[in-house]
Design goal:
569 residues, alpha/beta, seven-stranded mixed beta sheet, seven-stranded mixed beta barrel, 16 helices, 26 strands
Length: 569
């Protein structure tokens, strides 16, 4: 069992444990990515919230260490608190190959502590037979819309999604191991032997400097270039929207396939009309050769340059490099031994850097008659709250990046993006402009959200921006776990409706009061009073997951403020 100790006497919360029992052996085109894509299809983007996902069973030993990493990496897309695998030989091999043999030895000596107990109970059990698991492609617009590759083409045609693929992208943090790249290179090499290359732009993002250096040394990067690929820097890249895309116009409906873990609207290229599908690097490579969603490499053939048909072989690549890893260029710069006396000078005219100012401390009073900035309708990921892409150049300048606040969130009042009503003037305008007007006028505001608010990237700016522009609370049907914690750290109150239907009681023109805040305590609901424009009122209850430490963050104005207070004691 797994317990999280809340800092309140007699308050211990037990996380749920969802077991995923793996049996059989992967074969053919099936890869570790397909396991998490299948699980996402079962649990959805919020099914793992408040739970640990524990993979176990005889099938585990069929997965490489980096393959397990891929699965756990994408666990955030189902809301999991964390995901884990039992320690095994393949983990030990990887640790030794990466210079961590001492850790491998300690893990082997304590293996009984790193493997599940026999007959351990689970709150939910999912069983997957790897021998029959089909390769999957998930999307578009959400990572839990799962399609076996054999049904992808038909599903796409039925839904009216663009069949032709415009760009293929592999790598990033999710699927960029040496094994991943080697398997893709094997596919590419076979296609080139038949006179074929990628039909479309093919972008490769190594996941680390070590992987980049090693695939360069071993010729894998060059093979992918010959295939038509562009090897990008080992950085987030298009996965987080760092992509100056030129092949389609903004608003043009199109399809891309990638091996990333998130495919929310506009995430990769800032184009809301891009239909992004996530899958394994191997399938991205195969689909890039065909240039169409209506291709299944497990059963269909391609036509070579000589006119003869051929079927791609099952992909294969070594789990670890035979020559060992090349660590690449060491760019680490150690901090000075003593940094207390250092001063950071930032040009006040800089548009990309800005020193943070402490957020204001809670005044000890209830939040009374707050204005609703926006009532969000439907999916609201951290990308909707704080868009990435070209905005990332302002990551070091909170005021400038705050101009993207709720840029692509749907306003329930008019079903439009980035157009809300200023309750002070009656005029309509961009979200950030209205928020700034409220802040200047001293008007505290609250945002209302739907289900699984804040899913996706653990983007700190999605919590910093609302706080910076005067927000005091975010009230939703439910939160994604990481974003909920980020809101707490910035002194915002993340609150959930005791009854999800109370979302419908709130109208965009209401005034909202949060009462009894001086008695805020773990597990104690907050009373919320709604004052409607017609003069009527409603009282509802809002829940929270704040513990005592986090309540102190709220009172201090933020976690950083609280740390500063404690440092002075």
């Amino acid at each position: 069992m797994y317990y999280v100790e809340n800092q309140v006497k007699n308050h211990v919360f037990c996380l749920q444990v969802i077991g995923v029992k793996l049996t059989g052996q992967m074969k053919g085109w099936t890869s570790p990515k397909d396991i998490i894509l299948k699980v996402a299809g079962i649990l959805t983007v919020k099914g793992g919230t408040g739970a640990i996902i524990e993979y176990h069973g005889p099938g585990v030993d069929n997965i490489s260490c980096t393959g397990m990493g891929t699965i756990c990496n994408m666990g955030a897309e189902i809301g999991a608190t964390t995901s884990l695998f039992p320690f095994n030989k393949r983990m030990g091999d990887y640790l030794r190959a990466t210079g961590r043999g001492d850790i491998a030895a300690q893990a082997e000596a304590n293996k009984d502590l790193l493997t599940p107990d026999s007959g351990a109970p689970y709150d939910q059990l999912i069983e997957i037979d790897l021998s029959t698991l089909e390769p999957h492609v998930n999307g578009p617009f959400t990572p839990d819309l799962a399609h076996p590759i054999s049904k992808l083409g038909a599903n796409a045609k039925k839904a009216g999604w663009p069949i032709d693929i415009k760009v293929g992208l592999i790598g990033s943090c999710t699927n960029s191991s040496y094994e991943d790249m080697a398997r893709c290179a094997a596919i590419a090499k076979e296609a080139m032997n038949h006179g074929l290359k990628s039909k479309i732009p093919f972008n490769v993002t190594p996941g680390s400097e070590q992987v980049r250096a090693t695939i360069e040394r071993d010729g894998i990067a060059e093979t992918l270039r010959q295939f038509g690929g562009t090897v990008l820097a080992n950085a987030c890249g298009p996965c987080i929207g760092q992509w100056d895309r030129k092949d389609v116009k903004k608003g043009e409906k199109n399809t891309i396939v990638n091996s990333y873990n998130r495919n929310f609207t506009g995430r990769n290229d800032a184009n809301p009309a891009t239909h992004a599908f996530v899958t394994s690097p191997e399938l991205v490579t195969a689909l890039s050769i065909a240039g169409s969603l209506d291709f299944d490499p497990t059963s269909q053939k391609l036509k070579g340059k000589d006119g003869k048909e051929f079927k791609l072989s099952d992909p294969f690549g070594p789990e670890l490099p035979v020559k060992g890893f090349d660590p690449g260029v060491d760019t680490y710069q150690a901090p000075p031994p003593e940094g207390a006396s250092l001063k950071v000078d930032v040009d006040p005219k800089s548009q990309r850097l800005q020193l943070l100012e402490p957020f204001d401390v809670w005044d000890g009073k209830d939040y009374v008659d707050m204005t609703i900035l926006i009532k969000v309708k439907g999916k609201c990921t951290t990308d909707h709250i704080s868009a990435a892409g070209p905005w990332l150049k302002y990551r070091g300048h909170l005021d400038n990046i705050s101009n993207n606040l709720f840029l692509t969130a749907t306003n329930a009042e008019n079903n439009e993006l980035n157009k809300i009503k200023n309750r002070l003037t009656g005029e309509w305008g961009p979200v950030c402009d209205v928020a700034r007007a409220y802040k200047k006028a001293g008007v505290r505001w609250v945002a209302i959200g739907d289900e699984n608010y804040g899913e996706g990237s653990s983007r700190e700016h999605a919590a910093l921006e609302p706080r910076h522009l005067g927000g005091r609370a975010i009230i939703t049907k439910s939160f994604a776990r990481i974003h909920e914690t980020n809101l707490k750290k910035q002194g915002l109150l993340p609150l959930t409706f005791d009854k999800a239907s109370d979302y419908d009681k709130i109208q965009p023109g209401d005034k909202i009061s949060l009462l009894g805040l001086k008695d805020l305590a773990p597990g104690k609901p907050v009373v919320c009073e709604l004052k409607h424009e017609d003069g009527k009122t409603d009282k509802i209850h809002l829940n929270h997951t704040l513990n005592e430490q986090q309540i102190e963050w709220f009172k201090a104005g933020s976690a950083l403020n609280r740390m500063k207070q404690l440092a002075k004691k």
